[in-house]
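Re: duplicated header lines in exported structure tokens

Our pipeline writes sequence and tokens for each protein into one text file. With two proteins the header for the second block appears twice in some exports. Here is an export where it did not happen, for reference. First protein block:
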Amino acid sequence: MERTLSALSLRHSSRRAWGIVAVAAVGWLIAYNLIQTLAHWLTYRVLGFAEGSQAGEALAFFLYDVPKILLLLSGMIFGISVLRSFFGPERTRALLGGKREGIGNALAAGLGVLTPFCSCSAVPLFIGFVEAGIPLGVTFSFLIAAPMVNEVALAMLFGMFGWQVALLYLVAGMSVAILSGIVIGRLRLERYVEDFVWQIKGGGGAVAGETPTWAERFAFAWENTREIVGKVWLYVVIGIAIGAGIHGYVPEEALSGILGREAWWSVPAGVILGVPLYSNAAGVIPVVQALMAKGAALGTVLAFMMAVVALSLPEMIILRRVLKPQLIAVFIGVVAVGIMMVGYLFNLVMG
């Protein structure tokens, strides 16, 4: 009898959770479709800016993109978080162990896309992967893909440029992660991992718990979404504000001279400029949008964006705790070359 009542309670809880999510999804769609009209009305009717003016264009850009990106970000993180509720860290590491070169790198890059760990997670993840016996090159494929291609970047690119550009970014980012991991793996650089990493002993397997209910998965996704958006919303606002300023005020000629299609050096320049300019994807993509609106080449701008999120100085500093400088230098060099190849390829294809 108690078991029957418990099962009925779980079903009721799941139905209620699905109902709340369905209502929230409808509200999300309504809000998303009203943003542009509301931004235009606020800018030109309520605040009285002249249509076509620099200030009006910049403000309309800002008022439209901030809620749009936050909505896209929230929706995508929620969906990915529900998916992540099926894959704990131990299971993620288990899936990567014992795979052949190439297959393991591809699987690691794919998991890196689906499990958007931030750079502060780089050290424990690296140690955990080494502890599980995962090859060094496969581990790097994961560590490259996780920050470079994530739900934030994909959601924002999809919303700003359409599915074609988002798909190109996904394919390019995964290609860089896979090929870079293969190269690093073949160089046999294990000796440049700090000694203490190899000395860490496994702590035994985790005890399998009960399968979460849908209500619990949705609750996890909501908390994860609230936490991530709470951490990045300021980056979104700052990034979009910079993008709005570029969109409204920066002359097209000034940007096309640096990141234009005709400058052969623009791709490596974009990569070099991107490394010290630390941001997350939420902060850099609005700037990418404004740069492209001013005539910058897609491949050059994507190379700049990838360098910002995949070769950030904070992540390199964190990784120094587990990697010797020689391996960090190889990592930066291999990834930078891969990003530049992607930039030149995109410029050639899209030119």
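Second protein block, exported in the same file:
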Amino acid sequence: MLLVGRRGGTGKPGGRPARRGAARRMTDDIQPAPAPPRRGPAPQTRRGADVHDPEGVRLQKFLAQAGAGSRRACEEMITAGRVTVDGEVVTELGVRIDPARQVVHVDGLRFSVDDQMVYIMVNKPKGVVSTMFDEQDRLNLADMVGPREERLFHVGRLDLDTEGLILLTNDGALAHRLQHPSFGVQKTYLAEVRGPVKRDLGRNLRAGVELDDGPVTVDSFRLVDSKPGYALVEVVLHEGRKHVVRRLLDAEGYPVLKLVRTQMGPLVLGDLKPGKNRRLTRGEVQQLMAAVGL
């Protein structure tokens, strides 16, 4: 049986315009204290420009509504210089902002208030088609989440026989960046193959394997488990080509017996059961956005 473990991750910060709406209704709030570690460069900040909007909402009130912490904690974050608005460090408590047009970060994580955006993690079972509709009436991703008012996009695809993590969302900007290879979002897979695995397999995959549509390299590879006639390997890459993990391992002489995607950027499948789904926490959404510079 293929075992799916937990792994974590962080992303690189950035910014994009916030949207109107009530505070997101998600299961967890992320507390920015202390400042989280970053893989990428810190967000660019400037000093001097006036971000104050006299008709707007007080910055500390906005942050509290967005789940950054209590009003008092948000005031302390501002005075400590941990908050930026449109790239400007804000340290004054009297600043008002317009959440619909201004971008707010705390310790490099973007905060917004919008309950219209939906982010759902699905553990796709084998035999489910990675579409929201299937003309052949096969079981598809829409069947995994049931009828919904929003039009959801699936982020990437998994072939019919591959299981694991798929994200459904109506956030088109996030979906695009998560899928585009230029943003370098890594995907982690656990593959069951027939063992034993040769010792230079990882080195070969990292060096690059020539496939019929061009060379492919993996970001990392490790042997997770090995028994007589069986091996479980982990492959991490940011390529998005069709059947790329299966083709890579097959090219090296290890046809895949079972394949599960366990992670996408900082988003981890964890113990979510096949066929089940859950909404992302506020912290998970923020980490995904930071990973693609939103």
